[in-house]
Amino acid sequence: MPDRGDGVEPMRIGSLQVPVPILCAPMAGGPSTPALVAAVGAAGGLGWLPAGYLTPEALDDMVAELERRSDRPYGVNLFLSGPEPEGDVDDQVQAYIDGLRPEAQRYGVAPGEPRFTDEHVAEKLEILARHRPAIVSFTFGDPGTTVVSRVHRELGVPVAVTVTSEAEARTAVASGADALVAQGIEAGGHRGLWFDDPAEPDGGPRTTTAELVRKLVDVVDVPVIAAGGITDGAAIGALLAAGAVGAQLGTAFLCCDEAGTSEPHCRALLDARYSDTLVTRAFSGRSARSLRNGFTERHPEAPPHYPHIHHVTKPIRSAATAAGEADDINLWAGTGWRSVTAGPAADLMARLTGELNAGP
Ligand SMILES: Cc1cc2nc3c(=O)[nH]c(=O)nc-3n(C[C@H](O)[C@H](O)[C@H](O)COP(=O)(O)O)c2cc1C
Fold first, then answer.
1. Residue 38's domain is classified under what CATH number?
2. Calpha distance 291→305 (Å, rounded)
């Protein structure tokens, strides 16, 4: 059992006990690998495998690989597909596609076909019932009582739900959630908003991680995991003192040796010339925090149609990644990106745990 030192409580959610209350966020699209999740588990923390974008078969393979590498507890995160967007999707999406022609031509590709994709939650849960995740989480909505009770019954594990507001938190708890992932505005990647409101500049409330944790621990009686902009043990300690049971870090792990982050993405995170992050719909049609780059500046007004825009920009992003061109890639990053370091995940976990144990 990894040494967690004095003073730091393990994270407890139902029967799940994690010695070090540090979680490596699920990061779909490549960054989270079985090797990364295994390394975080070996260091006493908890890693999440991301099921988002994957087919059920690909998820099966990913979980099987993790189970070959590790016998430590791990979580699996599922995206909820939500309803198909209504309204004049075609016109807005077509106008956006037209605006992408210069980039597409530059890479010699055509924009992708806009389409809605189903996340196949029922099939993925069927697969997970044949494995042994210690916890399952849902992002982009309310899983509802039927899905939550199915996880309890068929997998026998707790359910966490990503929330960005008090209203979402109350609904998730009413649906039976055993824990909440409180995601603040600082977070890298997609915001977990249940409704990405086109009338709001960042798609919804701009509550910080610390504010959200403080608010939620007062109004719900399930454990709250803090996520967004966390980069060191002092920040983790402060959030635990505010009532969180654990801290979930994504960006901090992006350049770990075990992460599957693309080379240009990682290089950009370590490049001092990037000056800022912003919340943008430019890459996927859903509000997400990225490093500010040429693509975010050229496409400030993307229509709120996820996953249509995700599919439309994919060939450009893939070609740019292959060409090493960070200017046209979704460079997901939280506001704390300047603290990103490269190296083994064990070293990052050791640093964070050491800082946390050292106290304020
Ligand atoms: C590259 C990347 C991919 C992400 N993918 C997911 C995902 O698949 N599911 C999810 O619930 N959250 C995802 N997130 C959000 C994280 O769960 C978490 O909220 C966020 O990373 C915390 O903020 P930080 O990046 O500042 O640490 C992603 C974040 C990043 C940076």
1. 3.20.20.70
2. 21
Whole-angstrom distance, CA of residue 191 vs CA of residue 290? 11
Answer whether residue 209 is part of any domain. Answer: yes
Q: Give nearest CA residue, ligand 1 atom 30.
A: 189
Interval 111-129: pLDDT, tens: 999 999 999 999 999 999 9
Atom of ligand 1 nearest to the CA of 187: 23
How many CB atoms are located within 10 Å of the residue 157 CB?
23
- Predicted pLDDT of residue 350: 98
Total count of domains within the chain: 1
Residue 160 in any domain: the answer is yes
Q: Rounded to whole angstroms, how far apart are CA atoms 259 and 257?
A: 6
Q: Which of 81, 190, 340 to mutate to test the pocket of ligand 1 (most atoms within 8 A of CB)?
A: 190
The band of 5, judged by pLDDT with boundaries at 50, 70 and 90, is very low
Residue pLDDT, tens place only, 24-72: 999 999 999 999 999 999 999 999 999 999 999 999 999 999 999 999 9
Taking a C-beta distance cutoff of 8 angstroms, is the pair 304, 286 a contact? yes
What pLDDT was estimated at residue 290?
98
What pLDDT band is residue 7 in, cutting at 50, 70 and 90?
A: low
Find the distance separating the first CA and the last CA of the chain, reported in whole Å: 25
Phi, psi of 51 (to 5 degrees): -90, -10
User: Which tokens in the block code for residue 212?
Assistant: 């959200």
Cα(25) to ligand 1 centroid in Å equals 6
User: Which residue from 331, 215, 219, 248 is spatially nearest to 284, judged by alpha carbons?
Assistant: 331
Contact by Cβ (8 Å): 25, 229: no
The answer to whether residue 272 sits within a structural domain is: no
44 lies in which domain range? 11-81+118-253+341-358
Nearest in space to 23 (alpha carbons), one of 331, 341, 352, 337: 352
* 74 inside domain: yes
